[in-house]
C-alpha cells in the first residue's frame, strides 16, 4: 500500500492558508496537509474584532479588486473559490484627503501611488518641478536596474511631490520612507513602464493605460462580516489539520523529506513530512534555514521590518468630514500617519445609534520608540491629533482598542526582488520540496500574499510529481 504524502505549511497567515487551499485543490488526492501556527490565532494580519458592540478590523481592512495587469486579483479569486463572492462590499465613500498645512485637502486624482500623471492636478497640494523631467534620450530605468521610489520621483518632480504625496501614500501601506523603498517591488507597473519611457510623466501615464479602470469601478473590497470570514473559510476548504500555539523550532532534512521539531524544548514533537511551505516572516524563516540553506538564510534574514499600532476609537456622533479618511506626511510632525473613518467609508458598518468608528495608524519605520508608549497614551495622542486635524474637538470615546503589530511590514530596499529570486533559486536547487511564501518575499497586501502562497503550493505539487487528480 502506498504511503500517504504529507505537506507541512509553517505559518497560518493568509499566505499559508492560501497555500493549503491550493494544495487541497490541485495536489494529490491522498495528500495530508498540516498547518502549524506559532500564535493562537490564524490569519496573520487579518483579524476581525469587536468594539462597542460592532465589528471592526484590527488588521488589514480590504483587498484590491484587480491585479497590476488589470485582471481579477488573487484575493477576489480566492473569495470566489471559497463561496464568499456574494459578501464582497465596496467603500461607500472613496475620496480621501491629505493633512497638510494644518488642514485637509483632497488627494489629487490621476496619480499612481501619489506619483502624478497630470502635474496640474497636484498643484493644490505640492509644487512639482516639470522642467526636471526632461527626455534624456533613453529609458528612465535600465533592464536590470532598481532605484528607490523617492530617488526617482525627487529627481524628476521635486521634493514636495515626494514629501507631500508619494511618501504618505507609501507610508500608509508600508510604514516606510519613499527614499528607502524599492520601485520594482512597491510599484512594479511603474517600474515596467520606466524601462521603456523616457520621462516620469510618460511612465506614469503608460502604467495607467496598461491597466485601465472603468469609471466608477471599485478599487477596493472587503467582506461583510469581516475578513476573518475569509480565514475561517480557507481553513475549512483546505481540509488541513491545524495546530495553533505550535512553534516549529527546527527543520532538518530526512531520508524521505523533512523532519520538523515542534513545540517546547522539553516536550518537543518530531514530525516527518514530504514537503514544506515556509510561510512565516523573513527572520523566523532565516533561523529555520540557517543550517540547511545558509546562502538563502543570509539573504532572507537581511530583510528589515517596520512596526505599527492601530488605534480604534468609538466616538458618539462626531462631526466627521465626508471622506474615507486621510494620510499624514511625515513633514507634518504628527504621530498619526493615517486615519480611516470606518463607519463613513464602509456603509455596511454604519450604526443606527450614531456611534462612529475611527481608526488611526501609528508608527513609521525608524520611529519604533514612539510605539513603546502605553495604550492609554497612544489613544489619547491619537484623539488629540485627530481633533487638531479636523479643526474641532472630537467627543470623548466610549470605547477604544490598540492593536500592536510588531515587525509587521517588510521594508523592501532597491534590489529586493533580485535578491529574493537568487535566494529562491539556491533553495530550489538544494531542496526542491521546500518553498518560501509570504509578504517578506513578494510584497504586502492580501492579493500578493495569496498569490505567493498559491505559487509555493503549485511548486510543491510539481516537486511531488504532479496532482494525480
From TrEMBL:
Residues 14-461 form the Amine oxidase domain. Its cofactor is FAD. It comes from the Bacteria. InterPro entries: Amino_oxidase, FAD/NAD-bd_sf, Protoporphyrinogen_oxidase, Zeta_carotene_desat/Oxidored. Pathway: Porphyrin-containing compound metabolism; protoheme biosynthesis. Belongs to the protoporphyrinogen/coproporphyrinogen oxidase family. Coproporphyrinogen III oxidase subfamily. This is Coproporphyrinogen III oxidase. It comes from Micromonospora andamanensis.
